[in-house]
Amino acid sequence: MLEPLTQQNAPETDRLHLPLDTEVELQITSEDYVYSLRIPEWGLHEVAVPGLVRTAQFRTNESLDRVLPVDPMCGFGAFHDDVMGSIVVGGERT
């Protein structure tokens, strides 16, 4: 059984590596602004809000290597990075 990643034990990286064929519970929040997180392959569309923790559950049923674009809901996308990170399912960790 995998140990859950938490803010205390997760490595600092902008790539989230997940094993294939696994149930995942992802807790989503923001430190500064309201953002939209979309991963259409899993039907995931959540909103990250400062001070709130939202939970998304899904199963990693196929390999995936996907960039997660920043989608700030403040309307000032020019003031944010273009990418918040990436997510990789299966394959080797780099």
The overall pLDDT, averaged over residues, is 76
- SS-based structural class? mainly beta
Number of strands: 7
Identify the overall geometry. globular
| Helix and strand sequence | EEEEEEE
Distance between the termini: 22 Å
Strand order of the largest sheet: 1-7-6
Q: What level of helicity do the residues show?
A: under 10%
- The rounded Rg comes to 14 Å
Task: Summarize the main sheet.
Answer: 3 strands, mixed
Low-confidence stretches: none
Assess the beta-strand content as a share of residues. 35-45%
- Tally of individual helices: 0
What topology emerges from the helices and strands here?
Elements: E1 15-18, E2 23-28, E3 35-39, E4 44-48, E5 54-59, E6 64-69, E7 83-89
Parallel strand pairs: 1-7
Antiparallel strand pairs: 2-5, 3-4, 6-7
What does this entry look like structurally?
- The structure is a single chain.
- This protein is mainly beta.
- 0% of the residues lie in helices and 41% in strands.
- The protein has no helices and seven strands.
- A hairpin with a 4-residue loop joins strand 3 and strand 4.
- The protein is globular, with a radius of gyration of 14 Å.
- It starts with 14 loop residues before the first strand and ends in a 5-residue tail after the last strand.
Brief synopsis:
The chain has 94 residues and is mainly β.
